[in-house]
């Protein structure tokens, strides 16, 4: 499904990602763990196609098709979704209109029928309930005046709504209480399926109690330096990244 080959990304004169290889087959959930500043967000932005995060080497393909020539909106239409570590607010933009427009733009780009207002409202309300955002909150402009936890709930609402083929979650669990964490687990597990892949960036074992990953990778020194099964999260929590970070040097 998602294949990353020899990915090199330079920011401000530093090679943040340096020949990174990673493969996530359809139907699998892979977790990425790694020290602060190791390039986890850089990797997620590069996959999603954020401006300024163009690789100097390597390729990223989704189902064999290179994403690199596509803009972020085209990648989204192909089903690439990024849940931001720090989701931005968009004051002045009505939340439901914004999301319906975004969803219908994606559907249109895929040659699918647009969703009517009534149909949208129905699914939107269902997902809002699942993620625990009140109708009152959702009347506010997009993420405007939301707490950190509420913004993460909004990210999960979008993920449920867009039904992306490939979901990247950049520290969605950071700063969440136990109930919100369980909600994130519910959303991921309800979307899990043979045609969908996940890349879950996290620092904590806790999320992985709710979302059982197929593989865990350690990112250090600009590449994946170690990979293992779900048991690796506990090992990392106990012994830290030091042992693997030195392998990267
Ligand atoms: N736009 C940028 N320009 C220059 N350096 C950047 C930029 N974005 C991130 N960096 C640097 O790249 C490194 C990796 O950052 P990041 O990907 O956010 O790490 P992580 O998400 O693993 O904590 C850091 O040293 C950070 O300062
Ligand atoms: Mg980050």
TrEMBL record:
This is Fe-S cluster assembly ATPase SufC. Keywords: ATP-binding, Nucleotide-binding. Residues 2-246 form the ABC transporter domain. The gene is sufC. SUPFAM superfamilies: P-loop containing nucleoside triphosphate hydrolases (SSF52540). The lineage of its organism: Bacteria, Pseudomonadati, Pseudomonadota, Alphaproteobacteria, Parvularculales. It comes from Parvularcula lutaonensis. It comes from the Bacteria. Belongs to the ABC transporter superfamily. Ycf16 family. Pfam families: ABC_tran. Transmembrane segments: none annotated.
